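Quick question: what would this complex look like in 3D?
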Amino acid sequence: MFAGKRLSKELLKLKEHLPPGISIAKSENLEEWQMDIRVLDENPLYQNQIYRLKFTFSSRYPIEPPEVQFIELPTTSETPRPIPIHPHIYSNGIICLDLLSSAGWSPVQTVESVCMSIQSMLTANTRDERPPGDSDFVSYNRRRPRDINFFYDDDNV
Amino acid sequence: MESDEDFMSVASSADDFLDTQASDDESLGEEFGDEFDGGFSKDKDIIATSRKPYEVDFKVLSPDDIDREQNQQINEVSSVLDLPPESSAILLRYGRWNREKLIESYMDHPEKTLEEAGLGTNFQGIPKTQVVPGFVCDICCEDGNDIETYAMRCGHRFCVDCYRHYLGQKIREEGEAARIECPGNGCNMIVDSKSLGLLVTNNLRERYHILLTRTYVDDKENLKWCPAPNCEYAVDCPIKQRDLHRIVPTVQCFCKHHFCFGCTLNDHQPAPCRLVRMWLKKCEDDSETANWISANTKECPRCHSTIEKNGGCNHMTCRKCKHEFCWMCMGLWSEHGTSWYNCSRYEEKSGSEARSAQAKSRASLERYLHYYNRYANHEQSAKLDKDLYLKTEKKMTSLQSQSGLSWIEVQFLDTASQALQQCRQTLKWTYAFAYYLARNNLTEIFEDNQKDLELAVENLSEMFEKPVPELANLKVDILDKTAYCNKRRVILLSDTAENLRNGEWSFNVDW
């Protein structure tokens, strides 16, 4: 109820005006949205690529942060969507970002502001690498992103 | 040879004692006197003094006491710094209740301190909920001219409903209280108790209060919660972590639970916390399995495969590398000449190293098992104590009806049962402690004390098991034995605690 009202207002606002490089891919219901983002500058790591973010909302959104991760669509599909390479993005699409944790989240944040934060996180990156321990994490992790205690040790990337 | 050495060391340390006693002040001399006697002639003194060497100062605090203590400090800081109490509380929590340091840093850099604590520097106006025309809430995106809103001094205004949801989430779901920040993005202002009081229900306020008290106790080094289930008391004790080398601070909560203030495990006097941890780890892991293997198996002298001999003759042929050797002396089989199957070559050099390594493992295992068996025995008995206690209660009731004794008159059984429990707990840990002690003349006194207590405990335990009709006649005996057990325990603990405090023990491990 709480989440529904706020999300419909967000959607209304987004449809009126979308920031550059951000578009809505799916927003039929108020539990899960998908957003496409692309990097605006010339960063060679992300040239000519579009990435897909999946937002999952609980009924307590926006008091509680949404669950946000990248999802992959195969290169053979009409809209191929890879997982961007980044030292804070695991190859299964899970993002290690302070603002998505309950401690770093502010209810003032929106789907739009989260997309923009992730956009700029990509823009600023110069390292062509995955987080340390990526393959282990990807093969053993069965937890949902919100239950993982990421250690935000590196504020530079 | 060995006994000569022992004698020498006894003599020399006795000299040391006399020297110390002569040169030091009187009170220290007295302490040494007790300790040197090993608690024989001065038993009475030890028992008569109000605080025994193994006891520490402590105070049990109820939740109300903790509240009072907190409020007192908050009010003090509030009047010194001329800040509202709810802000002083945030400052104190930020400074982990170190008043002096906090006041100093505030005096030096007031604005910086306030900013870092999450208070902001604007103290104008009294925050209250209000209706603001043309307001749009950034959380729920509702607008309207009749929405009740709230903002702290930082000015980030949200509707009261969203604020309430937000606080509920933080307090109930995340268990946060001391550092709930303003919902505004990137705003570090801490939600104070006054704002919270305006916004949330009584239920939530209570929970908030409990969480705050919890952080208060967690923040202070001199406070610890009683670890007993459902116990809501905390203990205040001045013993610091760095003192734990010299003292074993056992405290007792109002709920009767005895625990160590240093590590919050059950009372483990006389063994210090660090040794207790080492001992528990040793008992848990399989470091002694390795010792069993080396004590009961041998390695092939060539390829070091582990071999257990389970029968047959001494002529061993390693299954793996085909090396042929003698099981008895570990030497080459070919060196045995004609004295096959009857090795008499014990002094041969080729096997002596293997033999001595094995002997070491065997001795180490035996030593560990010696202490472990006794430790485990008392632990087992301590577990039976609970049954014993229940049985005691039954016995007391039947004793009342069978012998016509009054309730007061049968209380001696309860006293005896409690003494038994406590003494067994102590005895148990004397064995873990002894495992790490390096032998010297002090350990002999220690072992004598240990033996005396053990004997007394077993005697009492035996009496305790007697059938009910006999118990009434044994009352005086049981009372005597109980008193004796307690006395032996005091002596043992006093002796070990004094030596620990004075750094007299030597250990066979670093800790």
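Answer marked as accepted. The CA atoms of residues 209 and 449 of chain B lie 49 Å apart.
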